[in-house]
Amino acid sequence: MDRSSLLQLIQEQLDPENTGFIGADTFAGLVHRHELPLDPAKLDMLVALAQSNERGQVCYQELVDLISSKRSSSFKRAITNGQRALPQDGLLDEPGLGVYKRFVRYVAYEILPREVDRHWYFYRHRSCPPPVFMASVTLAQIIVFLCYGARLNKWVLQTYHPEYMKSPLVYHPGHRARAWRFLTYMFMHVGLEQLGFNALLQLMIGVPLEMVHGLLRISLLYLAGVLAGSLTVSITDMRAPVVGGSGGVYALCSAHLANVVMNWAGMRCPYKLLRMVLALVCMSSEVGRAVWLRFSPPLPASGPQPSFMAHLAGAVVGVSMGLTILRSYEERLRDQCGWWVVLLAYGTFLLFAIFWNIFAYDLLGAHIPPPP
C-alpha cells in the first residue's frame, strides 16, 4: 500500500467526520490489523505525540507529516511534554546488525543528542544517496594538491614557490574582480600538513554530519564558511592571499563542538571530554601555525603569506549558522525565527564585504602586492 492510499484509509476509517484528530491507539490497531508498512520508530513517536494531548489524540496534519517523514517543532514539544516517554531501549542494544547498520548506529550516537532522534535517524536512514559532497570536495582537494605538487616539485610550504600564486584558484587581493577565487581557494593548500589536517576533519566530522543532516544543509554550511573566510581576509588582512579549506572545516567543527557542549548530558559518544580537548588543541595549534607562517615566514617569500583569518571566520559561521542547523535535525529551518536572524546577519555581512572590496581599497589607499 502506498503512502497516499494509507492516508486515505486512515481518514476514512478513523476520522470520518473530518474533526482533524485521530486516536493513537485506534491508529496503532489499524496498522497491526492491516500489516501496514510503518517504521517502529514512527509508531513510538505517534504514541509520544498522543501523550501530549489530553484526549490521547493526534492532529491529522501531524500524522501526515509523520508518515511523510517530515518533522516540525511540534514533534519535539509533544515528546518533551508527553506523559509517557518513548521506549528507553537504546540502539546500542540492537542485536544482529550488519557492518553498515553498525556504522549508521555509530553515526547516530556521534551526532545526535536525543534518543528519539537517534531512533528516527536509524530506522529511516537509507544508503542512497551517499554523503557525496564532503567526499567529493576532499577528493578534489587531494587531486589538485597532487597536480601542483608534481608540477612544482614541492610538497611542503608550496606557497613559497614563485609559480604557486599564479594559480587561477588562489584568492589574491590583486585579483578580487575574479569572484570565483573567493570560493575556489578551498582547493589549494599550503602543504601536505594542512591538506592532511583538513581532509581528516572533513571525513571524520563532515561525512557523519552530511549523513545525518543531508547534503544541502552541510554543503551550505561548508561553503558559507569558505566564503566568509575569504571575505573576512579581504576586510581584515587586505594584503594577504588565502588558500586552504580551513574556513569550511572550522565551520563544521565549531558547529559540531558547540552542539556537543550545549547537549552535553544527552550526547552518548565515548570519551567525549577527552575528544573535545584534543579537538580544541588541534584546531588551536593549526591556527597558531597559520599565524606563525603569516608573520614569521621561515623562508624568503616574494609577498605576504596566506592569512589565518579564514579559520576564525569559519568558526564564527559554525557557532552561529552551523549550530542553528545542527539543532534543527529534521525540522524546517524556514519555520524558525533564529534561522532568519542568522541569514539576515550573514546577508548583511556579505553586502558589507562586497561594498568594501569595491570601494575601500581605493579610498584607504591600500598597498596590495602586485598580482602574480
UniProtKB/TrEMBL annotation:
Q: Which Pfam families match?
A: Rhomboid (PF01694)
The UniProt similarity line reads:
Belongs to the peptidase S54 family.
SUPFAM superfamilies for this protein: EF-hand, Rhomboid-like
Species whose genome carries this gene: Physeter macrocephalus
Task of the protein: May be involved in regulated intramembrane proteolysis and the subsequent release of functional polypeptides from their membrane anchors.
A single GO cellular-component term from the record reads:
membrane
Name it.
Answer: Rhomboid-related protein 1
Give the primary localization class.
membrane
Where located? Membrane
Q: Which UniProt keywords apply?
A: Hydrolase, Membrane, Protease, Serine protease, Transmembrane, Transmembrane helix
Q: Enumerate the spans annotated as Peptidase S54 rhomboid domain.
A: 178-327
Q: Which InterPro entries match?
A: EF-hand-dom_pair, Peptidase_S54_rhomboid_dom, Peptidase_S54_rhomboid_met, Rhomboid-like_sf, Rhomboid_IM_Serine_Proteases
Q: Which reaction does it catalyse?
A: Cleaves type-1 transmembrane domains using a catalytic dyad composed of serine and histidine that are contributed by different transmembrane domains
Q: Name one GO molecular function term.
A: serine-type endopeptidase activity
EC numbers for this chain: 3.4.21.105
Q: How does it sit in the membrane?
A: Multi-pass membrane protein
Q: Which residues cross the membrane?
A: 132-151, 182-203, 215-235, 247-266, 273-295, 307-326, 338-359
Asked if the keyword Protease belongs to this entry, the reply reads yes
Gene Ontology terms: biological process: proteolysis
Q: Which gene encodes it?
A: RHBDL1
Could you name the active-site residues?
S246, H311
